[in-house]
Amino acid sequence: MGDNEIKITVKFCGRPIPITLSPDSTVLRLKNLLLPLTNVLPRGQKLIFKGKVLANEETLGVAGVTNGVKLMLIGTQGVHQGDGPILKEAQSPITSRKTDRVRDMKMVLVGKTSSERWKATGVIALAEHNLKAISDEVWDCSPFIRVLDIRTNSIQCVPDQIDGLTGLKKLLLDANDLSNDSISWVQLAKLKHLTVLSISRNCLNSLPGILGHLTALQHLDVSNNKLTTLPTEIGLLSKLEVLKANNNRISFLPESIGNCTSLIEIDLSSNLLSELPVTLENLHYLKALYLDNNALKSLPTTLFSKCVQLSTLELHNTEITMDALRQLEGWDDFDKRRRAKHQKQLDFRVMGSTEFDEGADKS
Predict the structure, then answer these.
(1) What would the pLDDT profile of 249-260 be if each residue is shown by its tens digit?
(2) What is the value of pTM for the model shown?
(3) 86, 242, 314, 362: which is deepest, by most CB within 10 A?
(4) Euclidean distance between CA atoms 353 and 288, whole angstroms
């Protein structure tokens, strides 16, 4: 701690958060420091000291905040990002003797009858089977399989044998116990025909650059993990049409995203983004962009004029204002496309009228 710094403690959701900063720092500066530690946007933070709510513009020194004091933070419901203000570990499914018997019966069926069915249909459907590992019978069917669905289990490993599924087009791994090191990415990246990869609701905090080898990929879902960024090599996925990376901790988006020129839909809502790369203007086929619950204050100035098919834009709980949007080149044409899409006044999440209300502040 420097000579001109103070150490304070902010209590939030029952836990202390130590912060060291200058007494000349503003309350808003403190809120920005708390953002990655709490997932609560500055606009949704209320800092209370001695029963008083501190104003953004005043400095800590003027507010009487000195070394060693404690402040209380209250987060406004809904004004958060990332995976929410309170993180809870996923609970293992509760099993009983009856559940165990059912699982054992399913395993018997897998061994005796399922293999032939899998080979005939090319589809392995093992979602919600209480599996902790991918069974050997799966690998025995390797050359015949087009779809592997093992969602909502307790699988902890995708082994090297995954490269044997040479004809695989869809791999669904959602809601398991997978971490970065438990997936054999080098072997998975050899699946040259893979068009759909879904790994949402796992424990990933990064994606490897080798992901860029999956050049046939059209749909990538890595939502509801703990990712802090996307690899630069994502720009190699020139056929990617749908990218779902919402509910992570992403604070940086690589400029190479602009090379994914086939993208139609991007969901980056509930992350820690404060800015977007200007290369988004290269996504001429982009139709839907979801950015709710981020710390964004502006959009790339050419987004509306270059992304000429964009008709859905969601900005709830960001710092972007209506005035700022109207000043962007191409706003009028975008507004016409949006109105045309919602001409029947469908209630599309935040759309309840013909006025633009996709989350932008009206101030």
Answers:
(1) 999 999 999 999
(2) 0.73
(3) 314
(4) 19
